[in-house]
Structures are given as C-alpha cells and as structure tokens.
Amino acid sequence: MCSFIEQCSNLITHVKEISKEDIYAELSEEVFGFIHDEIRTAAESGRDPAGRMRKIGETLLALSDSHKMYYDFIDYFLSTPEIIFPDDIKALVDINGRRIIDTIAGVIQQGVDAGKFRKVDPKNFALIFIGNLHGFIHFKKLNKTILKNQNFRDLYSKNIDCFIKGISR
Predict the structure, then answer these.
(1) DSSP symbols for the chain
(2) Would you say residue 141 lies in a domain?
C-alpha cells in the first residue's frame, strides 16, 4: 500500500498531465449525465404530459438548489460564449445537452399525440421551456429586492403553468 505522501505525489503528477479541456470534458459528462437522469426520471413520472412537464420544471428548480455547483457549471458554459473549447469537447457538451432537450421534447410529443397539446415543434418548444426556466431561476437572486414580497416558488410554478397553458388545447 502506498503511503499518503506517495498517493499525493502520484495525484499531483497525474493532475499536471490533465488539461483544462480534459477536466471540463469529464465534468460535463458527469454534470449533464446526472441532470439528464433526473430529468428523465421526472419525464417518466406524472399522470399526464402536463404533469410530467410540471415535474420536469420542479426538478430543474430543485437541482438548482440541491446541486448548485452543477447548475452553476452549466450556467457558466451557457453564459460565457467567448470561452472556446476544442471541437471534440464542444461536441460532447452538445450531445449531452441534446439528450436533455430530447427528453423534454419527448414529453411534449406525447402531449401532442394524446391531443392534450397543440401541434408544435417539440424540440423548439423544449428549448423554449428549458430556456425560460433557466432564466427564471436566476430571479431567485432577487428575493431580497424586487421579489422581497413575493414567493419565488409560486411565481416559478405560475411560469410553468403559463407554458403548459400556452401549448395546451
């Protein structure tokens, strides 16, 4: 068994060999994979497509609280377009992000097929949904100013309801 010092030395040597891009690729796989699993679980629960959309929205909000570092990781990537990663890492992030969008689009398509939702482009509306919620989650920061007399969770829930009403028949 290696001593603690030897283990640390091996770790430092290994870390020096890993690029920032490699670390980002590994983190993005973990973060997007975890979020996708949570979204997929939400998409499979609920009694109907509208209920599943609500559950997805609630899950995103819960993740922004319980796994703030994961949420911030994605937020950094989305809000910092000037950061340029090699094409292979960008492609990996896109693949993982697309899995999340495809899961949400699948629920929207179920609603369309069941006659509960209007005929819409599921992928476009999945992007609108997640983009809307992602942006709205930032309003949590205003709970001591503009939203001081508001219940953020109630507003967030109304936001989800507005989306669902907008695509419902």
Answers:
(1) ---HHHHHHHHHHHHHHS-HHHHHHHHHHHHHHHHHHHHHHHHT-SSSHHHHHHHHHHHHHHHHHHTHHHHHHHHHHHH-TT----HHHHHHHHHHHHHHHHHHHHHHHHHHHTTSB-S--HHHHHHHHHHHHHHHHGGGGGTTTTTTTS-HHHHHHHHHHHHHHHHB-
(2) yes
